[in-house]
Amino acid sequence: MLRLATQSNNIKTYVDRLKSKSEKSLKWTLLNAKYSVKDFPRMTFNELNDLTLGTFQLKQAKKYAVEHLSNNGSFNIKIAKQRDDLIRAQILSRHKSATLYDVWVQYNKNEILGWYCRCPNGCRVVGCCSHIASVIWFLSFARYHPEALRESASSYLNSITDAPPGYDI
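Given the sequence above, the corresponding structure tokens read:
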């Protein structure tokens, strides 16, 4: 962990080189993550907790992932044609309206190698932001456990009990 704290974010460096054109630009293919990227490592909830360094990101990851699902249930990501170890997604901010954050995740079949997000907290290498966590959570866990994507009944109860006074239920 301490070793990671002193490292720079290699994915950010790579993305910056792509942006500055010093690196050959990548061609991206849009895919439904539910049925693709079969070599993305499966992870347990505890492994995800260790990777993200806490439950906050994982709780937010579920919310972001559910919002990212399209009406037909697809979770859209992009895969680099020239690099099969790099995926990209655009995750809508829950705090800034109409703001999309670009997320990149590098992986192999055994582990997550790195990540980067263009949000204010997306460059860290120890733990990750909720946008990154949502992509990793969906690909490594939720698509194998569809029940994890369902809203709990208590969330609906909270919306009813928080209804304004005088609202006819």
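The mean pLDDT is 84. Try to locate this feature in the token string yourself.
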